[in-house]
Write a structure and sequence with these properties.
alpha/beta; about 210 residues; five-stranded mixed sheet; Beta-carbonic Anhydrase, Chain A; globular; binds zinc ion
C-alpha cells in the first residue's frame, strides 16, 4: 500500500482489511510498511485508513492479523472491548481529526472478559481486582439479556456484545452517527477466530459495498 493507493472510502478500507486478513490467514503476509524510510515520512504526519477498537487479548495483534504496517491503523483496545468515555474520545479523534472512513469493532472467540462475566452471573468466583468488577459489570447486562433469550454459548454472547458495543458507540457519539449518515464512515463489527486467524463479519452499519 503506497500513499497514492491508500483506502479513502469505507468500502476501500473494509476491502483492504479483508485482503490483509486473508494474506495473514494463508501464511502469505507482505509485512509491508515497517521500514526506516517510512518512519521518517510518518514522523511528520499520520494518515491511518481505519480505526480498530478491539479486545486487548494478546492474540488479537491488530497490525499482524490484518497484515498492515506503521501508520495504517489507529488502534484502541481494552479487555472485552468495552465502551468508555476515553474510548469514545479516541474513536472520535480517529474520525474527526484523522479522517478514517472505517471503524472496526473486533471481538474474538473464548474472550476472557466475556467468560469472566458469564462465570460471575453463574455465581462462580470473580477475580479480586476492584476494577475488573467494573468491567464485568459493563458486560453483565448483555450476558443476562442473552441468557433470557436462550443464548448460552460464548460465541452467541460475544456476537450480541459486539452488536451492543456498536449500538452504544453510535448512540453516544453524535459525530460518529452523523458521519455514518453522510456516507463518509462505516462501522463494522466482527469476530476473530483465534485458531483460524480469520475475521468473520457480524454487523455493518453504513455502506461498505
Ligand atoms: Zn478478549
Amino acid at each position: 500500500m503506497t500513499r497514492s493507493n491508500r483506502p479513502q472510502t469505507p468500502a476501500e478500507a473494509w476491502s483492504a482489511m479483508l485482503e490483509g486478513n486473508q494474506r495473514f490467514v494463508t501464511d502469505n503476509p507482505s509485512h509491508a510498511r515497517q521500514d526506516s524510510g517510512l518512519r521518517q515520512e510518518l514522523a511528520k504526519e499520520q494518515k491511518p485508513f481505519a480505526a480498530l477498537f478491539g479486545c486487548s487479548d494478546s492474540r488479537l495483534s491488530a497490525e499482524i492479523i490484518f497484515d498492515v504496517g506503521l501508520g495504517d491503523l489507529f488502534v484502541v483496545r481494552n479487555a472485552g472491548q468495552v465502551i468508555a468515555e476515553t474510548i469514545l474520545g479516541s474513536l472520535e479523534y480517529a474520525v474527526e481529526v484523522l479522517g478514517v472512513p472505517l471503524i472496526l469493532v473486533l471481538g474474538h472467540d473464548e474472550c476472557g472478559a466475556i467468560r469472566a462475566t458469564m462465570n460471575s452471573t453463574e455465581g462462580q468466583v470473580m477475580p479480586q481486582g476492584e476494577f475488573i468488577h467494573n468491567l464485568v459489570g459493563r458486560i453483565t447486562p448483555t450476558v443476562l439479556a442473552a441468557k433470557a433469550n436462550g443464548l448460552n454459548e460464548i460465541d452467541q454472547i460475544t456476537a450480541l456484545h459486539i452488536r451492543g458495543t456498536i449500538n452504544e458507540l453510535i448512540a453516544r457519539s453524535t459525530l460518529i452517527a452523523q458521519r455514518i449518515e453522510s456516507g463518509k464512515l462505516a462501522v463494522v463489527g466482527a469476530n476473530y477466530k483465534l485458531a483460524l486467524g480469520e475475521i468473520q463479519e457480524i454487523v455493518t452499519i453504513g455502506n461498505t459495498k
